[in-house]
Specification:
single chain; about 450 residues; alpha/beta; six-stranded parallel β-sheet; binds uridine-5'-diphosphate-xylopyranose
């Protein structure tokens, strides 16, 4: 919404939310207090806020005044009842639709921005059409493809914008045109794609499933590389040079995280199973199974390298966010690796340049594997990377933050217990140099050389 406000100064955008604390953060004069860290975002908010971008808790008023309403609420995996652990929880979407139905006094275009299962528009439509107020609604699907950490660039230079709607009626077409005019402020027309509403909904799940599939595919091969002496980065470069395959999303890692991949694939799997498509469901589910395997494999390697136990040993984690340039930790591989090591009674010291310390404890509480007291006894959040590594038996790189490559690794080595182990879960460091210093290095998808 901030980018739309920046690019369309003549359109008034009001972002409404039930959470007054959240809205207060968005209105904070100190732009470093915005609730999301995203490169380039605060500059855009500074430019548009108070001009044509507003943040408010006045939801009913926001609905009444708007001609177009974007539903952008959370659709997490269900944690209860039917579809628990698999299906998307549409509670918040439904509440939004009901509130719109209740308070709208004139015709509206309602845009689904949240990621949702295919055919959700039908639910929204049925609630809106039965409001009994005579107000007419046009429903569009306009999934968001931005990735965190690069969100502004992904929006400003979007590969495509997808608009799903009812192109069989003049009202449906008019609504699609109205939305497309917004994006046409900064994107060429050929990048705006029109589909029926169901294709648009399904395309979002499919895009995430394909992206995650690439990561799981290269991660599966990383295990094979470690056993054969092939180098996963060389394999990725070799296959990525084939223009049919392409070079992006082939970076082997400790496992993908983030709020989307796992949730959307589970949702896709659930939909397939519900429709009796067992083989299709199993096929996509394997991506998650492989990702879980990769995280466990990384943690397992730490334990087996440290002579089969990490009990009482200090392990330094560099990075906690699910990727660099974000403070988001949802489904981060770091918390699963931590969980595995804490099970073996490791002492973990975590440094991350952007993640708040309390967030790490909240993530561990979410896994619910042990009491909070025990977690706080075994895991500490440290504000300085050198301090995190001091007296550590091993360092694990969990996030690919650029600053990790600039550290004084000689100094770090000297401060550690020996042998000093380093597990690079992102393959971002200069392993040859680290080995020269004296580190015992384990890297994803690389042959283990120089280790006795
Ligand atoms: C993803 C999609 O990319 C985006 O289009 C969608 O709108 C939301 O979900 P996001 O989760 O923000 O975006 O980040 P992304 O860059 O896709 O990374 C997801 C995870 O995969 C991260 O943990 C990342 O580290 C990992 N990853 C990505 C790899 O391990 N290797 C890669 O080559 C790429």
């Amino acid at each position: 919404m901030s980018v739309i406000a920046q690019k369309c100064p003549e359109i008034k955008i009001t972002v409404v939310d039930v959470n007054p604390h959240r809205i207060a953060q968005w209105n904070d004069p100190d732009l470093d207090k915005l609730p999301i860290y995203e490169p380039g975002l605060k500059e855009i908010v500074a430019e548009a806020r108070g001009r044509n971008l507003f943040f408010s808790t006045e939801i009913s008023q926001g609905i009444r005044e708007a001609e177009m309403i974007f539903i952008s609420v959370n659709t997490p995996t269900k944690t209860y009842g039917k579809g628990k652990g698999m299906a998307a929880d549409l509670k918040y979407i439904e509440l939004c639709a009901r509130q719109i139905a209740e308070v709208a006094t004139d015709d509206k275009i309602v845009v689904e921005k949240s990621t949702i299962p295919v055919r959700t528009a039908q639910t929204i439509k049925s609630i809106l059409d039965n409001a009994g107020t005579g107000v007419k609604f046009q429903i569009l699907s306009n999934p968001e493809f931005l990735a965190e950490g690069t969100a502004i660039n992904d929006l400003v230079n979007a590969d495509r914008v997808l608009i799903g709607g009812d192109h069989h009626t003049p009202e449906g077409l008019a609504a699609m045109n109205a939305l497309s005019e917004i994006y046409a402020h900064w994107l060429p027309h050929e990048r705006i794609l029109y589909t029926n509403i169901w294709s648009s909904e399904l395309s979002k799940l499919t895009a995430n499933a394909f992206l995650a599939q690439r990561v799981s595919s290269i991660n599966a091969l990383s295990a094979l590389c470690e056993k054969t002496g092939a180098d996963v980065d060389e394999v990725a470069r070799a296959i990525g040079a084939d223009s049919r395959i392409g070079s992006k999303f082939l970076k082997a890692s400790v496992g993908f995280g983030g709020s989307c991949f796992q949730k959307d694939i589970l949702n896709l799997v659930y939909i397939c199973r519900s429709l009796g498509l067992q083989e299709v469901a199993d096929y996509w589910e394997q991506i998650i199974i492989m990702n879980d395997y990769q995280k466990a494999r990384f943690a397992d390697n730490i334990i087996s390298s440290l002579y089969n136990t990490v009990s009482g040993k200090k392990i330094a984690f560099l990075g906690w966010a699910f990727k660099k340039n974000t403070n988001d930790t949802r489904q981060t591989a770091a918390m699963y690796v931590a969980d595995y090591l804490l099970e073996d009674q490791a002492n973990i010291a975590v440094y991350d340049p952007k993640v708040k310390h309390e967030q790490m404890f909240a993530d561990m509480a979410y896994l619910a594997s042990r009491s909070e007291d025990e977690t706080r006894r075994l895991l500490t959040a440290v504000p300085d990377p050198y301090e995190a590594c001091t007296d550590a038996h091993a360092i694990a790189i969990l996030t690919e933050w650029d600053e990790f490559t600039t550290y004084d690794w000689q100094r770090i080595y000297e401060s550690m217990k020996k042998p000093a182990f380093l597990f690079d879960g992102r393959n971002i460091l200069d392993h040859k140099q680290l080995r020269t210093i004296g580190f015992k290095v384990y890297a994803i998808g690389k042959e283990r050389i120089g280790e006795g």
